[in-house]
Amino acid sequence: MRLTVLLTVLVLVFVPPPVLAHDPAEHGSNHASAAGVPGDPNAPTRTIEIAMREGDGKMLFAPNTIDVTVGEQVRFKLVNEGEVEHEFVLGTPQEITEHAEMMQAMPDMKHSDPNAARLQPKATSDIVWKFTSAGAFEFACLIPGHREVGMVGRVVVR
Ligand SMILES: [Cu+2]
């Protein structure tokens, strides 16, 4: 009896379920984030518009604080209202810091990750993201100098 259960468990663990073959995450970058998973465009989602702006020596996201519940999917509707290029990168504070260091070394690095977008002035872009665990996450513009003058926001998931 125990052996049968064990064998069943082994089969379940080692046979890849074919339904997962079309998981959207597999088509994107493998640069996953602990902040969650790429969203499903066909699933229910809450839209949050976030403007990118600069002026008076500051650069910012508006709003820059967002509250989300665990398991919720969010469509970030990004609008660059500024005069210069900006980006939006979502992740844990540690991921953002590591990414920022990489950007200092390679300022022209382009992102194709599902948790990031780069916008020319007046451009718009959407990121659909599902927050799967509780915690405090960040979104930031990692173009060198931008985060340092305020271009960072916070997502609290609970
Ligand atoms: Cu920026």
Keywords summarizing the entry:
158 residues; alpha+beta; five-stranded mixed β-sheet; binds copper (II) ion
Please give a structural write-up:
The protein is α+β, with helices and mostly antiparallel strands. It has a 5-stranded mixed sheet, with no helix packed on it. Strands 4-10-9-6-7 form a 5-stranded mixed sheet, with helices on one face. It has helices at 2-14, 24-27, 93-105; strands at residues 37-38, 46-55, 58-62, 65-68, 73-80, 86-91, 116-119, 124-130, 135-140, 152-157. Residues 5-30 have low confidence and may be disordered. A hairpin with a 2-residue loop joins strand 2 and strand 3. The chain has a single domain (2-157), classed as Cupredoxins -  blue copper proteins (Immunoglobulin-like), CATH 2.60.40. The longest helix has 13 residues, at 2-14. It starts with a helix and ends with a strand. It is globular and about 35 Å long. The chain has 3 helices and 10 strands, in the order ααββββββαββββ. The structure holds copper (II) ion. The site of copper (II) ion has 6 residues, from loops.
